[in-house]
Amino acid sequence: MADPTKRLPKLPVERALKVIAGRWKPVILYYVFDGPKRLSELKRMMPDITQKVLIQQLREMEEHGLVGRRVFAEVPARVEYTATELGLALEPVLLALCRWGQRHAEEQNELDELADCIVHPRASQARANTAA
Amino acid sequence: MADPTKRLPKLPVERALKVIAGRWKPVILYYVFDGPKRLSELKRMMPDITQKVLIQQLREMEEHGLVGRRVFAEVPARVEYTATELGLALEPVLLALCRWGQRHAEEQNELDELADCIVHPRASQARANTAA
DNA sequence: CGGAATCCCCCGTGATACTG
DNA sequence: CAGTATCACGGGGGATTCCG
C-alpha cells in the first residue's frame, strides 16, 4: 500500500466505498468515534478479529486519513488510535447507512416471512408482468 | 443466488454496505433513480460493463429489493428496471457518500502535494514500534 | 507483528440460447 | 434479426490460517 499503482477510484462514491470497504472497518470506526482507543482495548472489544487483521485495517485507515496514531513513550509501550476530522465527517454517513440497513432488514424479513407461506423462495421466476 | 446459505450480515451497517457493494451498482442506481430504464439503455449508458455483469448486478439488486423488473411482451422483447421505494431511500445516502468522497479526494490530494516537498512518501515507516 | 500459502468470491471474456 | 438472458472458463484481490 502507499503504492502509486493502487490508486483510489475517481468517482467519489466508489472512492468512499473503497475506503470504508473492509471486513471490520465500520466496526472499528464505531468504537474509535467514541474516543481514543488503544490497541488492546479494541482487541478486547472485538474478540472475533485477529490482531494482525486489526492492525492491518488500522494501517489502511491511517493511510487513508481516517484515523491517527499516537505513540506514548511509557514503560509499557502504549499506542492510541484516534479519529481524524475527515474520519469524524464519516460518522453521519455511517449512521445513515446503518438506519437504511435496519429498514432494509425489516422489509426483507417481512418478505421472507411471507415467502414461507408460498412455495418458491425466489420470486423472480413466475413473473410475467405484461404492462403496457 | 437466492441461496439460503448466503445470508446478509446482521449488523445494519455491514448489511447496507454488502447490498450496495458491487463494481457497478452505485452507477446503475444513479441512472435508475432518474427513471425506468431498459437493459439496452443501461448498456448504452455504461459501455464499459459487460451484459452478463450488468444483468448479474441487476438480479442481485432485485433480490435485495432495490430495483423492480417489468417484462413487456412486445415484438422485440422489452425489459424495464425501476427503483423501488426501498431503493429510492438509498439515494440520499449515496449522495452523502459521494460528497464525503469528494472531500476525501481533495484533502488527500493536498497531502500528496505536500508530501512531494518532504522526503519520504510514506509516513508509516519511521514510527517507533515498541509494542510486543 | 510480518510473510507465505490458501480459499473464495467478484468480475471479465466469449460463446450460446431463447423468444417473437 | 433484435433484445434479453445464461453458461463455461479464467484471472485477481481480499480475507483467513499457520508459521517464524
From TrEMBL, chains A, B:
Residues 11-109 form the HTH hxlR-type domain. The keyword Transcription regulation applies. It comes from the Bacteria. SUPFAM superfamilies: Winged helix' DNA-binding domain. This is Helix-turn-helix domain-containing protein. PROSITE patterns: HTH_HXLR. Transmembrane segments: none annotated. Gene3D superfamilies: Winged helix-like DNA-binding domain superfamily/Winged helix DNA-binding domain. Pfam families: HxlR. The keyword Oxidoreductase does not apply. Keywords: DNA-binding, Transcription, Transcription regulation.
